[in-house]
Amino acid sequence: MKSDYYSTSRRDFLKTSVLGSAAALTALKVPGSAQAPAPQPPFSPSDAANSPIGTAFGVKPGRVAWTHDPAATSWDGVTNAPGWWDDSNTHPEAVASMLSATIRSVGDAPTDKAAWNKIFIDFNKRSGKGAVGYRKGEKIVVKLNLNQVHDHGNGANASYIAPQLVDNLLRQLVTQVGAAPADITFYDAIRDVPAAIFDRCTKAFPGVRFVDGTGTDGREKAVPDKAHPLVFAKGDLTFFLPTVVTEAAYMINVAGLKGHTMAGMTVTAKNHQGTILTADGGPGAPHVHPWLAVKSGNRVGGPPAQSMASYNGLVDMNGHPQTGGKTVLYLIDGLYATQHNEFRLAPVCKWQSAPFNDHWTSSLFASQDGVALDSVALDFLRNEPTLTAIVTGAVDNYLHEEALAHQPPSGIVYDPAKTGKPLASLGVHEHWNNSTDRKYTRNLGKGPGIEFVPVKLA
Prior knowledge:
Elements: H1 10-19, H2 24-27, E1 53-54, E2 63-68, H3 92-107, H4 112-126, E3 140-144, H5 163-177, E4 184-187, H6 195-204, E5 209-212, E6 220-221, E7 224-231, E8 238-242, H7 243-246, E9 250-260, E10 264-266, H8 313-319, E11 327-338, E12 363-367, H9 370-382, H10 397-403, E13 428-429, H11 441-444, E14 451-454
Parallel strand pairs: 2-14, 3-4, 3-9, 4-5, 5-6, 9-11
Antiparallel strand pairs: 1-13, 2-12, 7-8, 9-10, 11-12
Helix pairs in contact: 3-4, 3-5, 4-5, 5-6, 8-10
């Protein structure tokens, strides 16, 4: 596999953050090249509103829960001593209440414990294990999006999963699910776990494991499991999954909420770029860009934009039995949404659209159905005025391919584990009726698609 073509240094991406606006994407130049391509029009779905495709599933099929609490986030957008990640700026009690309410909505139960039990039972029934819940000793692995973290410090305004959310999720898994700390691992196989997450969690729950790309300072290093290859249907690409993933019985996918300079957006599906490894343990992400790009990106010479009804590597990454096949819950941290994958948090990241109204997004989104969750995230992202220059191209091509993975529009046979059996539908996709009502077919009582549930906090 060759990655030179896609090895544009991080300084080019970081320049967009320094410039501080989405318009910077069109002004960026690469040494020795022409100016970057002209901006593309904002994303517009190719499918009509409330036209679901794929198969919904979950305790409440197709349910996506959303909690929004501006009181959870009070950071001024500038100070980084302490930064947004400190409890004085991101309030743990509010985050705990948001997570609890979200889990109860997804599990359709009055208590956290009952909701988790229903979530695990539903997952195990669909996985062929029978109507059983979590059993003590089973390992749980949690994928965190730590893309902007490149050392074990706290990162000056870097965007990553909030420590308060990680801490409360860990607390839920121990006290409500019944897992021992030593059976829970948080990881990003190619980035670093920051001190803000590592220190508070290991102090509160000694024995919990953290795996990253360096394996120093108490973290373990991600190691590829050669027995479980993940093979792309195109591109002659074979990757391997970390042993911490293949040894686990369950996965929880915790993503951020942001646009993307190449893929249009990055939520739960793209989170697994931080999972795939090469045979020598290096990051697989640089090699997959041609099969994820839906726009020409922020530089000349990048991978060409893929269109609707084309192969997308995110389907293989999420359809593998060791990734999507183990995922019991998908969760999006939208407490502090940022503009794109390399954009550092700043006041310009506050959303203009209602109900955010020039405040941080202050939100959590969750579902058992990753396709449904990413579909809802896209509807929010595409309707935010500050992101119209970023969320462009055939952003939802992968959602169409995932929803119809058994018979995708591209005609590709998706079989990433090489079992000889193509993937089934990975979930349900549709777009809401409009950005004011935010109604999907199950909300309207007229279809088998998504049910979007704004959760009221006590």
